[in-house]
């Protein structure tokens, strides 16, 4: 006869068996939720399973719940939390399930954290350990997934041939297993390689094959990724309207899934498409919505958004705000150890300083970026930094150093396959070889490189760059006395110039619109935070700022009108030159080209700009006058423009004086302030903030 104790034990086993079956069912559902993008929902279920599994000492449930929580945190980019969950899981696995597929899963997820941080060697090592475990256990699906993960790392490193070598066997295994979901995802990843190599038709072919599988089988998380990647192809091709269409399709699918992080990513990409069309207000709205979503779901990493916001203000020539966001991105990437991304932020800061003529600071940041990219093995980043450094050396007249740096960039650029980078390399080399002062100048090769760059920039729809290359080539023809070719090319320059000026007008209007929005947003915040009297004072301040912005807009519009008048005058001159004798026609074109090189800023515009500067920065000027009373009125204005990040050449043009005069003012200011080694610009920018 069975004793009462035995009956009780049998009953307990039955209850435990029932509970474990239910927990395994919940685990499978949660793991699937993570796979399709429901990371937040999955975490709630996994925490419940973790508690119940701990209560009944169900080790498999504990391990799978902790591993799932780690993966969910990965999806949400909460990396420290992910590593904590995975470390707990690994401790239990090594005690109860050594050399099991559970351990392989943990190693794979830890590898993802290292990949996201740019620690690619560590990520590769962990993936290879996981791969050995899966092969020994005969788990073909996990084997294929891990081989694909290794391929993903090689993509990050820019080693696309190695990446494809791994994707192909991964795809074959999935095809043997008839795992359609994984097949579609792998095809999508292979499409990414072709996109990175600028082989866009091949990329679209792979994305199309993946999309067919995903839509036929209702794999909506994969479908959203497909739409996003197809949008990326159209964006880099310059077809921003088509890119917007696919990004919106991706957002539509992601919204149905409820995957907030994926929605945020697609909104960010949609913002990039608006940015490409110079629709800066719409781009800003997308970036802000993405930022709100990431704040709401607790995503800690927002570096890419800050970088895009910096790029937006950079394009609007609002360099101070751009620098603010670039530094935010840099801090974010450093905090979360995103080594390859740290290099991107440093490179953007360096490029901005280069654009404003602050070459020493630019080179400092660019060399830091180069070191970061070399450590992380990011080849396309290395090549782009070399391009920027080489161009700065060219601008400084250090021609040999420039040529050596560009030679270092060339093989990396060709391997990475970026059309824009190849075009920029050709353009910078052409400018260098066209320099008479360069000992190895070669105008014949320079002409060839200008033409090649022009063709490549046309394929990327880079109108500003096309205009600059055309002007460079026209100048070369002028110096060689090839007037007919110079005239023909100059007509193309005029057409491109109209487009560039039109885009500049749109940027100015958008910047005005953004300033208004910022002012209104600040006002709303102040209304909520302050009492009635403070609100009244802030309203007066807002009115003054709006009036100043209105004045700036009026001045900008007047400048645009003057420039358009100049364009018409140029066009009329060329038309008249056609009917003149060859000698007179040549002289007319020569005079015209010389006139274009002259500053076009009228004295009335200078006066207006200086008055606006004095109004806009009255507090800054008053503070300087109080702290450094020996500064003259002109020196105070120079200080103001330096704090805005303007170069000496731009300040000289604003005042209508020579650059040497401004350099003299800078020397006097340094003596009066008492600066010895520190950069005057950096000092004034910090002084303005303080």
Descriptive account of the structure:
The protein is mostly helical and 690 residues long. 85% of the residues lie in helices and 0% in strands. The chain contains 32 helices and no strands.
Helical content stands at over 70%
Q: How many individual helices?
A: 32
* Most strands sheet: none
Strand content: under 5%
> Structural class per helix/strand content?
mainly alpha
The overall average pLDDT, rounded, is 81
* Number of DSSP E strands: 0
Rounded to the nearest angstrom, the radius of gyration is 30 Å
Distance between the termini: 88 Å
Low-confidence stretches: 4-15, 597-601
Shape, per Cα inertia axes: globular
List its traits.
690 residues; mainly alpha; 85% helix; Arc Repressor Mutant, subunit A; single chain; 32 helices
Give a nutshell description of this structure.
By secondary structure, the protein is an all-alpha fold. It has 32 helices and no strands. Helix 6 (120-136) packs antiparallel against helix 7, helix 25 (532-578) runs antiparallel to helix 27 and helix 28 (618-627) packs across helix 29 (633-643).
Please specify the SSE layout and strand pairing.
Layout: H1 4-35, H2 39-55, H3 59-75, H4 79-96, H5 101-116, H6 120-136, H7 140-156, H8 160-177, H9 180-196, H10 200-216, H11 220-237, H12 240-257, H13 260-276, H14 280-297, H15 303-315, H16 319-335, H17 339-355, H18 359-376, H19 379-395, H20 399-416, H21 419-433, H22 443-459, H23 463-479, H24 483-529, H25 532-578, H26 582-597, H27 603-616, H28 618-627, H29 633-643, H30 648-655, H31 659-673, H32 680-689
């Amino acid at each position: 006869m069975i004793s009462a104790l035995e009956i009780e034990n049998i009953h307990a086993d039955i209850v435990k068996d029932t509970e474990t079956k239910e927990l395994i069912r919940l685990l499978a559902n949660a793991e699937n939720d993570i796979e399709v993008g429901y990371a937040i929902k999955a975490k709630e279920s996994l925490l419940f399973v973790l508690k119940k599994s701990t209560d009944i000492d169900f080790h498999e449930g504990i391990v799978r719940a902790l591993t799932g929580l780690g993966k969910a945190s990965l999806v949400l980019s909460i990396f420290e939390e992910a590593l904590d969950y995975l470390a707990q899981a690994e401790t239990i696995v090594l005690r109860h399930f050594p050399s099991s597929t559970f351990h392989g899963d943990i190693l794979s997820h830890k590898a993802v954290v290292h990949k996201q941080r740019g620690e690619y060697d560590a990520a590769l090592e962990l993936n290879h350990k996981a791969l050995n475990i899966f092969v020994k256990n005969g788990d073909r699906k996990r084997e294929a997934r891990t081989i694909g993960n290794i391929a993903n790392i090689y993509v990050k490193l820019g080693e696309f041939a190695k990446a494809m070598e791994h994707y192909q066997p991964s795809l074959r295994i999935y095809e043997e297993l008839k795992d359609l979901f994984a097949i579609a995802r792998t095809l999508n990843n292979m499409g990414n390689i072709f996109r990175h190599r600028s082989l866009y038709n091949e990329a679209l072919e792979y994305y199309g094959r993946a999309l067919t599988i995903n839509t036929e089988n209702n794999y909506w998380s994969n479908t959203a990724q497909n739409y996003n990647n197809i949008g990326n192809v159209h964006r880099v091709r310059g077809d921003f309207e088509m890119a917007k269409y696919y990004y919106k399709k991706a957002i539509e699918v992601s919204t149905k899934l409820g995957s907030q992080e994926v929605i945020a990513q697609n909104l960010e990409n949609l913002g990039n498409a608006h940015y490409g069309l110079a629709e800066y207000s719409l781009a800003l709205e997308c970036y802000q919505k993405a930022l709100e979503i990431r704040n709401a779901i607790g995503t800690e990493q927002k570096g890419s958004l800050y970088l895009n916001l910096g790029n937006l203000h950079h394009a609007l020539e609002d360099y101070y705000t751009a620098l603010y966001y670039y530094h935010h991105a840099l801090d974010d990437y450093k905090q979360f150890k995103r080594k390859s991304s740290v290099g991107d932020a440093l490179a953007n800061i360096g490029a901005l300083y280069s654009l404003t003529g602050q070459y020493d600071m630019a080179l400092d940041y660019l060399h830091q970026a180069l070191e970061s990219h070399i450590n992380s093995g990011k080849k396309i980043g290395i090549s782009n930094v070399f391009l920027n450094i080489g161009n700065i050396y060219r601008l400084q007249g250090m021609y040999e150093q420039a040529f050596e740096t560009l030679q270092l960039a060339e093989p990396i650029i060709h391997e990475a396959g970026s059309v824009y980078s190849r075009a920029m390399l050709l353009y910078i080399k052409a400018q260098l070889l066209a320099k008479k002062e360069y000992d190895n100048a070669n105008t014949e090769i320079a002409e060839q490189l200008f033409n090649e760059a022009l063709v490549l920039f046309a394929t990327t729809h880079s109108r500003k760059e096309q205009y600059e290359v055309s002007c460079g080539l026209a100048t070369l023809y002028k110096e060689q006395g090839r007037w007919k070719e110079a005239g023909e090319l100059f007509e193309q320059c005029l057409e491109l110039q109209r487009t560039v000026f039109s885009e500049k007008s749109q940027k100015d209007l958008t910047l005005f619109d953004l300033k208004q929005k910022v002012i209104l947003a600040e006002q709303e915040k102040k209304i909520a935070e302050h009492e009635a009297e403070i609100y009244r004072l802030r309203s007066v301040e807002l009115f003054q700022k709006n009036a100043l912005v209105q004045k700036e807009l009026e001045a900008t519009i007047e400048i645009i009108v003057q420039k358009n008048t100049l364009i018409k005058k140029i066009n009329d001159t060329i038309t008249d030159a056609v009917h003149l004798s060859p000698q007179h026609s040549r002289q007319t074109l020569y005079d015209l080209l010389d006139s274009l090189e002259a500053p076009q800023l009228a004295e009335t515009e200078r006066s207006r700009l200086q008055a606006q500067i004095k109004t806009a920065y009255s507090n800054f000027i008053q503070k300087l006058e109080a702290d450094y009373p020996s500064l003259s009125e002109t020196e105070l204005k120079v200080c103001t423009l330096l704090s805005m990040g303007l170069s000496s050449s731009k300040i000289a043009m604003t005042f209508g004086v020579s650059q040497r005069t401004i350099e003299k003012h800078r020397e006097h200011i340094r003596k009066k302030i008492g600066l010895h080694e520190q950069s005057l610009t950096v000092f004034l920018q910090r002084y303005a903030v303080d």
